[in-house]
Amino acid sequence: PQQVVDINLTIDHQGQWFHQGEPFIRTELVRLFSTLLRLEEDANYYLITPAEKVLVKVAEVPFLIVSASEVIQAGQPCLVLETNVSDTFTLDEKHPLRLITQENGEPRPYVRVRDQLEARILPQVFYQLVDLAETRQENQQTCLYLNSAGAEFQLGCFD
């Protein structure tokens, strides 16, 4: 759709949805809207409907990873992640993990949920992933790696 409307929808750093400054109360509505959310080429987020695109201002990323569980699928370890809007998916090549190192040196982990939409992995979940990681010695550093669904992801290296 070509028509873009702005009805003051926002998603804050904690994944909370707001309409005109008021938080959404109904989780079912947030879940429904989350399935319509897209990141467009203009770097804006929109709810896409057949008639219009509704602008959504997102503080960081639209979703949070709130849990992780390790399972065995087809004989290999897989990490199943869940978002704050109840999306579940396997950490794999289609849903890669990426880390940004903040100015204070702390890692800020993200994972692709679908299309170009990402979720920030909450610290408690990231610590759980660190516990599941394998260590390797590389260039006089210890590096942490996660293996999931045949894909490998580096969580970082330290002295």
Describe this structure in words.
The longest helix is centred in the first third of the chain and has 10 residues, at 27-36. With 159 residues, this protein is mainly beta. The protein is elongated, with a radius of gyration of 18 Å. The chain has helices at 27-36, 123-132, and strands at 4-11, 17-19, 22-23, 37-39, 45-48, 53-58, 63-73, 76-83, 88-90, 97-101, 107-114, 117-121, 134-138, 141-148, 151-158.
Please summarize what this structure is.
The protein has 159 residues and is mainly beta. It has 2 helices and 15 strands. It has a 6-stranded mixed β-sheet with strand order 3-2-1-6-5-4. A 6-stranded mixed β-sheet has the order 9-8-7-12-11-10. The chain has a 3-stranded antiparallel β-sheet with strand order 13-14-15, with helices on one face.
Notable characteristics:
single chain; 159 residues; mainly beta; six-stranded mixed β-sheet; 55% strand; elongated
Biggest sheet, open or closed, and with what strands and sense?
6 strands, mixed
User: Treating each run of at least 4 consecutive H or I residues as one helix, how many helices?
Assistant: 2
Please give the radius of gyration in angstroms: 18 Å
Number of strand elements: 15
For the termini, the CA-CA separation is 52 Å
**Structural class label:** mainly beta
What's the arrangement of strands in the largest beta sheet?
3-2-1-6-5-4
Write down the secondary-structure element order.
EEEHEEEEEEEEEHEEE
Q: Runs with pLDDT <50, length 5+? A: none
The portion of residues forming beta strands comes to over 45%
Tell me the helix content: 10-25%
Query: What is the mean pLDDT?
Result: 95
User: How does the overall form come out from the CA principal axes?
Assistant: elongated
